[in-house]
Design goal:
This protein is α/β, with parallel strands linked by helices and 326 residues long. The chain folds into 2 domains: 5-163, Rossmann fold, CATH 3.40.50; 208-322, Up-down Bundle (Zinc Finger, Delta Prime, domain 3). It is built from 14 helices and 5 strands. The model has no long low-confidence stretch (mean pLDDT 91). The chain binds zinc ion.
């Protein structure tokens, strides 16, 4: 049963409602960050379309389960943007609704799953509203929605909403420990950098990001020692916003460290660097500099094609002044 432990409760609630024939026709799964909604919906679809299972899970072996695994079940319709398009247009929705309006191919439920609701265009949302008002029978809509994006109130009011959250840190750590590959200090750092999402934290380890981050912090340490923070600029070329965030989180840790050496810092693996910065930056300066990096992060995220070298000048000049390098 491939459901993340922190999503099992939600799975059980939804599937029990389906079994007792009380499940709403439009199920909106809402989360702020990636914590596994895709797997959750996939397993829900599998159970709903499985023909053998007598319990709350799919049997995983019947013909229908196999069809779902190979993404060939005709009653499972996943609506994504068409090739070379970034949004889901009205034509796309209508095409699927027409397809499923007749009874399902295997006489059971038909499912329409929209993995990225925020990609629906305004007109798609409006046509969807009409469909949700008077839905065709035997259709369940699964709508995966990231709460970072706005969604019309009227749309939300026509769905049943299930909010899902990342596990508490202790549970995330427990899940990671089963993989038996990483040091606890590193796991906690990755979890805290990922708002406690074990999935995002694992992505940090699985990609090259963990190594890039370590290397970047080494460079900061090196340039502080060499009294030349400007040399950092050339290391911002790739992953610029991430690197700015890493500096922001590091300064935040120094501030926390000022108040209490035992406070919950993010970058547990960077205590040495935190202490180095604390030595040369007083609390007032730290608050000043963290705001500059915050501004910098905002510009990089919100201004397309911004010149990152130009944006980085101010925080670096000011930080050099604080360190007394100028
Ligand atoms: Zn089955």
């Amino acid at each position: 049963m491939k459901i993340y432990p922190w999503l099992k409760k939600t799975y059980k609630i939804i599937i029990n409602q389906h079994i007792s024939k009380k499940l709403h026709h439009a199920v909106l799964i809402r989360s702020r960050i990636n914590i596994g909604s895709k797997k959750l919906i996939f397993q829900l679809c599998k159970k709903i379309l499985c023909k053998k299972s007598k319990n709350i899970f799919s049997c995983n072996v019947c013909h229908y389960c196999k069809l779902i695994d190979s993404k060939n079940h005709p009653d499972l319709n996943i609506i994504l943007p068409e090739i070379n398009k970034k949004s889901i247009g009205i034509e796309n929705i209508i095409k699927y609704i027409k397809k499923v309006q007749n009874t399902s191919k295997f006489g059971k439920q038909t499912i329409i799953w929209i993995p990225k609701v925020h990609l629906l265009t305004e007109s798609s949302i409006n046509s969807f509203l009409k469909i949700l008002e008077d839905p065709p029978s035997k259709i369940i809509f699964f709508l995966d929605y990231c709460s970072f994006f706005k969604l019309k109130k009227t749309f939300k009011s026509r769905c049943i909403i299930y909010d899902i959250y990342p596990p508490i840190e202790k549970k995330g750590l427990f899940w990671f420990k089963k993989i038996k590959k990483y040091k606890e200090k590193n796991i906690l750092t990755a979890l805290r950098l990922s708002e406690n999402s074990p999935i995002l934290a694992k992505k940090i380890f699985d990609s090259s990001i963990w190594k890039i981050r370590k290397k970047f912090y080494k460079k900061i340490e090196k340039y502080i020692k060499k009294k030349n923070l400007f040399k950092l600029i050339k290391h911002f070329k790739n992953n610029t916003s991430k690197k700015i965030y890493w500096i922001f989180s590091l300064i935040l840790d120094v501030i926390k460290y000022y108040y209490n050496k035992n406070s919950k810092i993010i970058n547990l693996d960077q205590k040495k660097l935190i202490k180095i910065i604390k030595k040369k930056n007083n609390l007032k300066n730290l608050y000043f500099i963290i705001n500059l990096w915050k501004k910098c992060f905002f510009y990089i995220k919100n201004i397309p094609n911004v010149n990152f070298k130009f944006i980085l000048l101010e925080p670096l000049i000011q930080w050099e002044k604080i360190f007394n390098f100028l």
